[in-house]
Amino acid sequence: MKRKWQLWLAIVLFVVGIGLISLEPIKTMLVATYRPTITRQAVEHNQAQAKRADYNMNQVKAVTMNQVINARLHAKNVKLVGQMLVPSVGLHLPIGLGVDNETLMLAAGTMRADQKMGQGNYALAGHHMINKQALFSPLYVKGKVGMKVYLTDMHKVYEYQITQRKIISPYAVQVVDNTKQALITLITCNDSGSKRLLLRGKLVHTTSIKHAPAAVIKQLHQKTNNYNVLAGY
């Protein structure tokens, strides 16, 4: 009887172990399949709903496996309004309205309802992950003054150049305020989460998407770096 009980225990532990081993690839695949098609028509439709989005940074939760999977299962709730690309650090993300948890688990999020690419202060928030290649993590690790940031609303491509990098207090909310000058403001957490990294740049060039550099267009059609956001969790 004792030997039989030990056999059943061994079988149960084996099955659980196999489940835990296979779970990580399943989680990764679930999130990796988020490859939304972003069209000009969809962007225009979603942008008209900007006032309905959630811009309360105080309600943003830390990344967990359940949060990411929940976001992926409800990805239709993410209102996409464009893409962002930072070639020098390997960042390419869809841009969604607001900073609700579903949006930030899968994309960069706009921080004000009145934001328009190429006008005023276009502020974006993103998560700093354990995986240093996911979401906004490349900005914290490799982001520097002088690098180029490209935004597109699928109508035009807006080229910004970063002019400032600094660590700020999470209470320095004025950095999100609108400005007369055309700027980009990128916000993410530091490693401990107690501070924020600010990257700010100025608009240097605007062109129609048809006449944008071929290298930029090619990268906009490639995989986004919200892949494998669960690595390490």
Automatic annotation (TrEMBL):
**Looking at the record's lineage, which domain of life comes first?**
Bacteria
Q: Which UniProt keywords apply?
A: Hydrolase, Protease, Thiol protease
Can the keyword Protease be found in this entry's annotation?
yes
Q: Which InterPro entries match?
A: Sortase, Sortase_A, Sortase_dom-sf
SUPFAM superfamilies linked to this entry: Sortase
- Which Pfam families has this protein been placed in? Sortase
NCBIfam families for the chain: sortase_fam
Q: State the protein's name.
A: Class A sortase
